[in-house]
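[Q] Does anyone have a clean structure-token version of this?
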Amino acid sequence: MTNPISDVAGADFILAIGTNTTESHPIIGLQVKKAVRNGAILVVVDPRSTEVARLAHYHLRLKSGTDIALLNGLAHVIISEGLWNKEFVDSRTEGFEALKATVSRYTPEEVSALTGIDPATIREVARGYASAQKATILYTMGLTQHVCGTHNVFAVANLAMLCGHIGKPGSGVNPLRGQNNVQGACDMGALPNVLTGYQSVTVDEVRAKFAAAWGVDEIPAKPGLTVGEMLEASGQGKIRAMYIMGENPVLSDPDADHVIHALDKLDFLVVQDIFLTETARLADVVLPAASFAEKDGTFTNTERRVQRVRKAIEPVGEAKPDWQIICAVARAMGYPMDYESPAQIMEEIARLTPSYGGISYQRLESRSLVWPCPAPDHPGTPILHVGKFARGLGKFHPVDYIPPDEEPDEEYPLILNTGRRHFHYHTGTMTLRTGALEEYYGQEYLEVNPADAKALGIADGERVRVVSRRGRVEVTARVVDTVPPGVVFTSFHFPEVAINRLTNSARDPVAKIPELKVCAVRVERIA
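[A] Here you go.
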């Protein structure tokens, strides 16, 4: 996020696109509700009628996968009506004329034909966003899990810069991270092309710095593979061993049958986790990890806030904190990884990572810190891009609408959309073991629009089979108007409804994120 979570409550215009905020991010959802109570205009862009959509002044139920068309249409109205922030664009950005030329083709009428949203509504939302004093954009994986996910984010950034809604309170471009420390994992280099703090592996000076710190001759300059690429390579026999930590790709990754095939082809699979997940059951070795309550460390949340995690109990049984397991494996392989504590690891992080340079356990004992925090006396940076962008001028990236990889056809006439439920989390590894949350939401359903249910002869509560080009699952139908005609929805939380057996592994060519949000299916009654 470019801005703090608390800023959301102070916005007077919120554009929430591809995010079921109140269910998937309830703490941030509270800030959205506060803003609405304080008079903010809320616009929700989502095919489904979610809780946050029902709070909205404008609910734009666009056709799945047409986000770029909509965002370009908003930019078209803002430019054609002279509503953009000319001072901000002139002094702080470059590439405006290229953006103007691209969005000139996206008239509200043209966009309406692609998205299904009324042209008058497109104009009203554009005017509202442009004229607001403090406008924020929230988005999550409903925007990014498409073959054009990177371009979707470019279109969001274009809109924010066009109106100068960045680098000030109550504004910004704010992706809401889906897990408690996914921001921290990325910050620490859990991406194939960077080391800590997003320092590129292709930069000689960066590699030399880390090689010297770690006492090795060199660090490879070639970026590695993403998760999807690794599984693809495993299926082809190009990767022979894999080490999976805290991840359950058998349920969470698209085309899950292919994932199982890829993992089965490995010579050796290690899984490090707190429970015996569906993926761990395939492993040759399972290393028992400690939960958050059994270890010391830090989490970095979605607003870039680094916070201490303190051990409440000793690890149960043979479980150990992740860092201790990794050190033990490294030593067994011949590398002397001999850290003594998480605090010592944080000291190394600060030495090697400019954005974490001023963060230490000593400082975190009394308060959390928001990166960039480059020096021990630096207070942290709650709002990014104040006064200038890191690259100097913000660059507009004109993008065109790209249709989904799969469109409905005669054999697969419906679109499957997936997401999360309020009471559960990810693949249910933890939330399906509580004994309490299951009382509130104990089984999964497929949301089917009444018109589609009538055409298919499906009754509420009836078992159905959902079939895609990759697989099939059985699930109970729930006939509701939360989804529009032509769309069905369910979550990926429940192992017995392994919905990612159906989803499409086609990837964004830039970020390599799979298109989990759009998948062509048919729904059949089970006799």
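[Q] Thanks! Anything notable?
[A] The mean pLDDT is 93.
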